UniProtKB/TrEMBL annotation:
PROSITE patterns: ZF_HD_DIMER (PS51523). It comes from Hibiscus syriacus. GO terms for cellular component: nucleus. This is Mini zinc finger protein 2. GO terms for biological process: regulation of developmental process. Keywords: Metal-binding, Zinc, Zinc-finger.
Length: 87
């Protein structure tokens, strides 16, 4: 039995004609919040990666421990793996 592994970035889709398993990993990268918006400027705080303040399932899970902003301000990176099994 041969196995093939296809790594897809968001936007492209491929399918296998035999049994396949799809694994989706979501990672939140650098903060995109404009900290100087209220004074008409443009500045980032330098937060490089989202770290949840609390455990999954609580309100703190949506707040970044490093910069204090909501998870939606961080760049969302979706990585999808499709593992196909050919017989």
């Amino acid at each position: 039995m041969k196995k093939c592994q296809v790594v897809l970035k968001s936007g492209r889709r491929r399918s296998c004609s035999t049994s396949s398993t799809m694994i989706t990993n979501v990672r939140y990268g650098e903060c995109q919040k404009n900290q100087a918006e209220n004074i008409g400027g443009y500045a980032f705080d330098g937060c490089r990666e989202f770290m949840a303040s609390d455990s999954e399932g609580t309100n703190g899970a949506l707040t970044c421990a490093a910069c204090g902003c909501h998870r939606n301000y961080h760049r969302r990176e979706v990585e999808t793996e499709v593992a196909c099994e050919y017989t």
